Structures are given as C-alpha cells and as structure tokens.
Amino acid sequence: MKKLKRLTAAAIVFILTFSLIGCGENESSGNSGEGTIKFGIIPGTIRTAIVLLADHLGYYKEEGVNVEFVEVQEATAALTSISTNKNEVDIWGQGIVPDLNFIANGSDLVIFEGTAAEGGAIIATPENVEKYKDIKEYENITVATVRADSAWVVSREYLKKQGIDINTINVMEVDSQVNVAEAVRKGEAQLGFLPAEYANKYADSVDVVYEVGELEPMYVCCRQVTSRDTLKNKESELIAFTRANIRALEYYQKEENRQEIISFLAKYSGQTEEYVEQYLFENRTIMTLDPNKEGIIDYYNSLVDAGYFEGSIDVAEHIDTGIYDKALSELVEKNPDNEFYKSLQ
Fold this sequence. Notes:
Elements: H1 10-16, E1 24-26, E2 36-41, H2 49-56, H3 59-63, E3 66-71, H4 75-83, E4 91-92, H5 97-104, E5 109-114, E6 116-118, E7 120-124, E8 142-146, H6 150-161, E9 170-174, H7 177-185, E10 191-195, H8 196-201, E11 207-211, H9 212-215, E12 223-227, H10 228-233, H11 235-253, H12 258-269, H13 273-282, E13 285-287, H14 293-305, H15 322-334, H16 339-344
Parallel strand pairs: 2-3, 2-4, 8-9, 8-10
Antiparallel strand pairs: 1-3, 5-12, 6-13, 7-10, 7-11
Helix pairs in contact: 2-11, 11-15, 12-13
C-alpha cells in the first residue's frame, strides 16, 4: 500500500450516528481526478478477489477507469461514507446484510454488481458431523451464529421449505465468528453457521457438515453497492469498472492461470497459498459478478421472515442491473466469438 490518509469521521458520525473506524486510501492504477472509482477493501481479505485481480492485470487502465483502493476496517465505515456522498468510498463489495440494513434504514444505496455467491458453512464437532447430515435432527437443538449471518439465514429458509419446525431451534447469537466455533466446540450449541473461510480456520476443533451452497446453490452472498448519486454521476466509470471485472472473471476461470492467481493473492493478503487455494478454488465460494436481482429480493424477504427487518421498503428499487448488462453487452459486441462472455448473458 502507498501513502495513506484517514477518512474524516466526525461529520459522518453526526449525520448517521454510526461509529466510523479509520480508513486509509491507496493510490492505485493512476492518479486521482476525473474518472476515478474509490473501492473500499478490508486489508488482508480476498473476498473481492476479482476486483483485486482486475487491478493486478491492468484491466482498469485498459478499460479507461482509474480505481483507487481505500482501506476500511468494517462495513459500517464504508457504507456510512457512501451513504453521505463524502467521496472517500464509492463502492463497497463485501457482505450483503450490512447493505440491506442501511437500505432498510433509509440510505439510498443501490446494489449493482455481484462479488461472490454461496460461501457459508454449517459446522459441528467431528463426532456429530454424520448425525447432522440428516436435517431432521435440526429440530430441538441450539445453533450458534453471528446475527443475520448469511449461512444461517439461507439455511433457516431451506429448513422451512423442507418441513423442519424452525420454531423449535434455539438460536444463540454471538458477537464473533470465533465465538460461534467456540460454542460448538464446548457443546453449548450443536451446530454453528459461519463463512467458509472461518470454518476452515477452526478446522482443528470443528468439521463442516454442509457447505450451505450444497443445500441452496448460488444463493446471494457479497454484492457490490454504491450510492444512487454515484450510479448517476459515474455511470461510464462504473461500466468500465465492470467490463474490467468481467475480463478478470474470465481470467480467473482458466485453469492455467490458477497458480499465478493464488501466488498473487497470497502475497497481497498475507495469507498462505494453501488458504487462498482452498478459499477460491476448493470451497463453494463462487466468484460471480451478476447482480442477481431476484436472488437479492429472495434474500431480503428471508431476512424479513426471520425478523431482522420490518420489510417496509421495496428492495427492488435499490437494485440496478443496467451497469452489468451494459458492460457485458459491450464486451460481447467487441468480442463476438468469446464464448465466456456470451455464456454470462
């Protein structure tokens, strides 16, 4: 990372009463100015792998957009900045529950692109893994989860569809992923619901029963979100940004590029190559840029059904598919024989 500067927190805290954690800005892919997109990242994470790869490969420069990476410690800081149009962050691409929480509370945010699908896991102690392969065993147990974690929200909806009486399940909400694993390890909960990377991290004490994508394939996970003002004022930059991302997704899909990608992201994140390979190529964490409007609406309704939101807003009004569609159409027009681009359509 190059020269860093801090986001100004006082005004943002005053406006939205959210605590803002310090952020830093990295000058990447050129100089600041016209045509710049500021993308928020959490240092050391690789969930936004396709965006990082697009920058690494020089695709942003080739597509005519300048992308700067802004270091953010958590979602609230990034979404607060985006919501108040402070211009420190234009896009946030990790998670979906924080995005929907801001939208439900009145922020005029717009989800316009995907980051990843699936990515959650159900864990148990090793001796209980086979038992909980049978979802009928899920009634009258205690499960541990961080509030509104995707793995639990999606699994909860799946269990309902399968006729499981979810009202018999005691939900233990804890404040961190490590405490989910600890609750399972100590026997305080029979099952835990975690992002896959955390399930792997605690593999010495717990095992994976299911990756949630085995139950609900391609459920929405991380999305990319911006403000409605940015969507309007930087439309051409967002389309160029998305073209570059689609090109990077194609690069990611090719087996011959696998080791280069692993090495780059391991060096970038400080994680081991084994961790990166498992996360990006072996777990059911699927890199996808399609915004998946219907999937977002279904996910929002699942959150409402679980009691996390009141459901008083029309979430469809906060989803834009035009940026992705335009970017993809332009790539197909320019590369009419490219089967990968056509498959995305």
